[in-house]
Amino acid sequence: MNFLFAWRYFKAKKSTNAINIIARVSMAAIVVGAASLILVLSVFNGFEDLVKSLYTSFYPDLRIIPATGKTMTLTSVQLQQLAGLPGIRSRSLIAEDEAMMENGDLQSKVYLKGVDENYRKVTGIAEKVVRGKFELGTEDRPFAVLGSGIENALGVESDRSVVPLSVYVFKKGGPAYTTDPLASLSNENITTAGAFVVQQEFDDKYVITNLAFVKRMLGLGPDEYGGLELALEDSLQADVRKGEIQKILGAGYKVQTRYEQNQSLYTVMTTEKWVIYILLTLVLIVAAFNMVGALTMLVWEKQKDIHVLKALGASNNRIQQIFLSEGMLLALLGGGAGILLAILLCWLQVHFKLVPLQGGSFLIDYYPVKLVPRDFLLVLVTILFVALLASWFPSRRAALEPIDLR
C-alpha cells in the first residue's frame, strides 16, 4: 500500500515543475553513485585477482620456516609425519640466503634460493620462464634461473651465456672477526639456464638453483634447511592444515599460509578498496541532499492529500511510511539503473577493452574488472541506508502535519 502511494506520487504531475526536476536529478545522482561504486570495486577485484595470480606463481599454499634464525632442522621422521598428513599434494625443501653475483665488472645483490626437484610442483615459477628453460643442475654442475631484473643488471642473456657467473655468500659459522673478508665468504661459479618474469619484486631479487649446491655454499648439515614449501590439494583448507602441521612440529617452527606470507600486501589492497568505497559513498550522500529537497517539496505539494488521509483515519506512522517509501522508490530505481549500467560497462570493458592501461609495461593492456555478487549487495544496502536517512526528515515532517480541511 505504501509503495502504491509512492508510485502514484512519483508518476503524477506536480504543480511546480521544479519538484520533478529535483527528483530526477537526485535519481540521476544515485545512478552515477551506484555505477561508480560497482565499477571501482570491480576494478579493484580485477587487480586483486591479477596480483594474487602473480604471487601465487611464486608463493606456496603453506610455508614452514624457523621461528628464529635462518635455518631449521627437519629430520626424516618429521618429514614422514608431514607426508602422512591428508590434503598435501607436494612438498619442496629449500635453502636460501643473500648473495652477491658477479659477471665481470657487473655485480648485483641477489637472494639465492636452492630448491629440490619437487619445486615445480609446489609453485608455478617454471611456467614463468621466458628465456631458456627451468633447469637447476646438480651440486657439482649447478645451473641458475635468474629473475629478469637480475639478468639485466648483470648484462647476460640467460639462454645463451657460456661464461659462468661468480656467486659469493657468507658461510654459516664463519669467523666473526677477520682481517681477510674473503675468509668468511664462499665462492662458486654457476651457469645460467634461463630467466623468469613474475613480478618486479621477485624479478629483481631471486636466483633459483638446486638445493644441494646452496646447502654446500652455506655449509648446512644433512638435515638443515631454510624452509619447507607445501602445495595442498585444496588451498581453501590452508588454515586447517596449518594447525595440524604446527602440532607436529611445535613452537620452534612457523607455519605460514599464503595470506600470511603476503600479509602487508593484502592489508594494503583491502584498505585501499574500503577507502575508495567510503569516498564514493560521499557521492551518494550528496545525492541524498537533492532527495531531501525533492521530498520536502513533495510534502508541500501533497499537504491536502495528507490532511484527507489523516481525516480518513491514517496514523502519523502511516503517513511517514508513505513518504519514506517515496525515498526508497527513488533509491531503488536509481540504484537498479546504476547497477545495470555498471554491468553493461564491465561487459564492454572485458570484451572490447574500452579503457586501456597506459605505459605498455604491464602484463595486460587494459583495466581488469571482476563483478562480485557481494559488491552488488553492499552497494544496494548502502544506497537504501543513505536514502532512508535522507527521507526521514521530510517524511517525519509530513507525519506531523496538522489536519486542516478548509
Kindly provide the radius of gyration, computed on alpha-carbon positions and rounded to a whole number of angstroms. Answer: 32 Å
Query: What is the rounded distance between the termini?
Result: 27 Å
Low-pLDDT windows of residues: none
* Estimated helix fraction: 40-55%
Strand order in space, largest sheet: 3-4-9-6-8-7
The figure for the number of domains is 2
Q: How many strands?
A: 12
Number of helices: 13
Percentage of residues in DSSP E strands: 15-25%
Question: How would you describe the shape?
Answer: elongated
The class by helix and strand makeup works out as alpha+beta
Major sheet attributes: 6 strands, mixed, barrel
Mean pLDDT, nearest integer? 89
SSE string, helix = H, strand = E? Answer: HHEEHEEHEEHEEHEHEEHEHHHHH
Give structural attributes.
406 residues, alpha+beta, 2 domains, six-stranded mixed barrel, 13 helices, elongated
Describe the structure in your own words.
Strand 3 and strand 4 form a beta hairpin. The chain has 13 helices and twelve strands. The chain has 406 residues and is α+β, with helices and mostly antiparallel strands. The chain has two domains: 189 residues, no CATH class; 200 residues, no CATH class.
How would you summarize what this structure contains?
By secondary structure, the chain is of the alpha+beta class. The protein has 13 helices and twelve strands.
Secondary-structure topology with pairs:
Blueprint: H1 2-11, H2 17-56, E1 62-66, E2 72-73, H3 76-83, E3 88-103, E4 106-115, H4 119-122, E5 129-132, E6 143-147, H5 148-154, E7 165-170, E8 185-196, H6 200-203, E9 206-210, H7 211-218, E10 224-225, E11 227-232, H8 238-249, E12 253-257, H9 258-261, H10 263-301, H11 303-311, H12 316-352, H13 373-399
Parallel strand pairs: 4-9, 6-8
Antiparallel strand pairs: 1-11, 1-12, 2-10, 3-4, 3-7, 3-11, 5-8, 6-9, 7-8
